[in-house]
Design goal:
It comes from Micromonas commoda (strain RCC299 / NOUM17 / CCMP2709). The chain is mostly helical. It has 21 helices and 2 strands. The two termini are 35 Å apart.
Length: 446
Amino acid sequence: MRSHALNSAHSSRYISCKLAPVVFQIAAILRALLIMWSVVQDAYCELPFTDLDYFVFTDAARYMVVGISPYERFTYRYSPVVAASLIPNVLSQPFFGKLCFVVGDFMTGWLVLEILSFCGSSQRTKVASVICWLFNPFTLAMSTRGSFESAVSTAMLSILLLILSGNTFLACAVLGLVIHLRIYPVIYLIPLCCFLCLDCDVPDAHSWDRRIEGSKDRRANYFTVAIKSSCHIFSAIASITFTRRLELLALCMSSISIWLLCFLFFGSEFQSETYSYHLGRKDVRHNFSPLFYVEYIAPRIPFRAMYTFTPVLPQMVTVCLVGFKFAKDLPVCLLLQTIGFVALNKVSTAQYFVWYMSLIPTALPSGIVQCSGCKSLASLAGQDLHRAAALRFWLSAQFLWLIVAYHVEFCGTCAFLLLWFASVVFLCAHAWVGTHLMTARTKFMR
């Protein structure tokens, strides 16, 4: 019996090892077909397959080729680095950028394998986690439609792998580059600082699901907890300043040098379009956030200035609390922070979901595979796919929002109040998923 079990386990590992390359090959074929289909749909259908931002990127790259600022292209709100990297779209093939974003998908999948291998996860878990990323409908759609979020996902997982492997200097340098491309990774400074200052141990295969140490004194009053948290904050800042000087230098040099270079070439227009616009961005239509309705009726409400800054408070509080609470469990902390940030952001679009979906395979490997095969994230709480109420609610809420948004955007139906209600439901779904994951992790803490 024992020899049979050993042979079965060996056979399972052998199949998993052979399966990994096949998974990447199938994912490559599927993405190639989607890119070819995008050419057909863009040419013959009224509704194009390619994302509008991809056309904006290409136009900005075309402006740079002829020596014009990319910000002359209306609605280009990104770093010049993005437009410059897509110059081959103009000089050679228009789908060059999509191929680069698809490569970013595969790089992210490879990083998932490396991170889980570094932490000692089983081959079966690694393969299932890669499948979770490569065959995710959002992942497939975003890269083949021309969204560069896969590049950001690749950079974030690279940072995670570098930190877990002890190469913190290079990790901070990459983080500075990512913050230049996208502002939101600045929220990760809190858990990264705490993780480095606390000198947390890298998780292994046996402790991967029990990395967070809960407070032993659960009856401590909130005042005491607040005092202790404040002390930890100041000690973390002091530790970063005095003991992590090289990492701090790498972070500052990489972000400031790129910013300074872009500012010298494109001036204040670069600062305004790349950063200032996103900090005060307003979107009254294609937006999952309930705050779109506030912006829609803002001209008719008193104290409208108050609504500009008030929504930022719960978002920042959530990001900071999660960052300090789960800092010892870095992959899970980044995931929970991103979910909270996206859910409470003033503007929330579908491409933002990729920000936290890329972190799921590394944060919750045991939630992807259990015993007999792939299961949902809710399996962390012992539930099967058909019982994953939180996941079903998230999908249903998004489907409801898309139906209402379609009638508003394409049919001209005046249903903004109903769209606001759908956005509130979707916010509740995000909150349920986030609290569900935190509850599931807390069960391993006890």
